[in-house]
Structure formats: structure tokens, C-alpha cells
Design goal:
The protein is of the alpha/beta class. It is built from eleven helices and seven strands.
Length: 261
């Protein structure tokens, strides 16, 4: 029977690249996005089976998407990719943006995982969650976003241990050349710290690393790996590590200036 993969937030960016990679691997892919027209257009362009409107804040809609996906075959893969990236210090974030970060980035993943587990049944399957390098440690200027991604990492590892028939994975990329990053304050603290890591990753690089986890027992993968090691160290020693933050921010600003951003 045809293997089906659901990819949320896949009308553009990392989600689109993941959906395209899964199509290339022979999956019948269901593209979902809060923008229905964009989801439908993307589905046609990449050869997916359908594009659906999907607000991941709505728990019931996840179940509806799962039911529609099952009409196209056996749902074996569910990718929780939809997310927002509002930057700014905790004291600066509006209530609306703070709620969106928690409701979309964390609750949306939680609802998606619940729907996937129900759709897989006893046969099991793979759940792939888009987390972030920021989930590994402190990122001033991106505190709430980083907290939601840390929560996604925790949820991924815990659920992976709860059900042996289900393989849960989390991909944690450094800065990626997407609209999410482009929409950040380009003169802000978070954007400079993102730039300090070097060149921006492409969506295709992240998608390949993520999709390659499917079918394996690897739970967490950080791209690039060396940045993951640095972030984990900063999480263990936040006081001393954050003393270097001004230098990192300066390096990021210099890199952005050289790149003309």
C-alpha cells in the first residue's frame, strides 16, 4: 500500500523542501499550511497528492488532516514543521506574538504528534519535528522562541521513549535562509547572533538531514554538528558563556555587513 507523509507548514521554506524530498523518496505527500491557496499550489508544483488548509493551533484539524491523508494510503510519516519565529526580548514581545509562539511552535507540534500516533496505530511510524539550534541553549533576543524549541526537543525525546513502535526525531538547524529569518529585526540581537555562526543553511540541506533520519533510531540531529556542541556547552555554563555574547553579536554584524544584509 502507498506510504503517506503529512508535512505541516510546507507551502514554503524548510517544510516545502522536506515535502519535496519525501516526494522524491516515493511518498504520497500531503502538503498542509495555514495558507490554503499556497498549500494547493505547492502540492501541484512538487507532485504531492493534495494541499490542505491547516491551522496547527486547532487540535481537531490535525485529526481531520490525518483522516484525509489516510484516504491516499497508509500514513507512515508525520512532519511537524509549521512554526513562527518572532524575535525580541521577553519584555518586548506583544501578548499576541508570545501566544502565537507557544500555540504554534509547541502546542501545534503536540497536537500533531497526538494525531500522528492515532493515525499510525499499532504498526507505528515516524514523527519528525522541526526544532532549532536555539533549543539547545540560551539565545538572548530570541528567548520565547528558543523556549518553545527546547520544549519540542523535550517532547520529542520523551514521546520517543513512550512508544517503541514510534520513532520520533527532531532536526535542529542553525540559521536557515528562509522568510522566517528575513522577517526578524535585521538590526536586532537575535539576528546578529544567528549570523555569527557563518553562512546560512539552505532549506535543501536541512531537509536532506531531516528526512534521512526517518526509519532510523536517531532522535536528535543538529546541523551543523559543531554549532550544536557549542550551544550545549553554553547551556551547561550559561554565565561564563554569555560573557562572550557581545563578541559573538559583533561577529554576526560584521558577517551581515560583508554579505550586504
Amino acid at each position: 500500500m502507498t506510504s503517506v507523509a503529512v508535512v505541516t507548514g510546507s507551502a514554503r521554506g524548510i517544510g516545502r523542501a522536506m515535502a519535496q524530498a519525501l516526494v522524491a523518496r516515493g511518498y504520497a505527500v500531503v502538503v498542509t499550511d495555514v495558507n490554503e491557496a499556497a498549500a494547493m499550489q505547492t502540492a501541484v508544483e512538487i507532485g504531492a497528492v493534495i494541499g490542505l488548509a491547516h491551522d496547527v493551533r486547532d487540535a481537531a484539524r490535525h485529526r481531520e488532516v490525518a483522516a484525509i491523508a489516510a484516504e491516499h494510503g497508509t500514513v507512515n510519516v508525520w512532519v511537524n514543521n509549521a512554526g513562527v519565529g518572532f524575535d525580541g526580548a521577553l519584555s518586548e514581545l506583544s501578548q499576541e506574538r508570545a501566544d502565537a509562539l507557544v500555540d504554534i511552535n509547541f502546542k501545534g507540534v503536540m497536537y500533531g504528534m497526538r494525531a500522528a500516533i492515532a493515525a499510525f496505530g499499532e504498526r507505528g511510524g515516524d514523527i519528525l519535528n522541526t526544532a532549532s539550534l536555539s533549543g539547545h541553549g540560551p539565545v538572548p533576543g530570541l528567548s520565547v522562541y528558543a523556549a518553545t524549541k527546547a520544549a519540542v526537543l523535550s517532547l520529542t525525546t520523551s514521546v520517543n521513549a513512550e512508544n517503541k513502535a514510534i520513532r520520533c526525531h527532531a532536526i535542529c538547524p542553525d540559521g536557515v535562509d528562509t522568510q522566517l529569518v528575513a522577517d526578524m529585526d535585521q538590526t536586532g540581537q537575535a539576528r546578529a547572533l544567528i549570523a555569527s555562526g557563518g553562512r546560512m543553511l539552505s532549506t535543501e540541506e536541512v531537509a536532506e538531514a531531516a528526512v534521512n533520519m526517518i526509519g532510523t533510531n536517531r532522535v536528535v540531529r543538529t546541523v551543523p554538528a559543531w554549532r550544536g556542541a557549542m550551544m550545549r556547552l553554553s547551556n551547561l555554563t550559561p554565565g561564563p558563556s554569555m560573557k562572550l555574547e557581545p563578541l559573538m553579536r559583533l561577529e554576526g554584524k560584521l558577517r551581515m555587513k560583508r554579505a550586504g544584509r
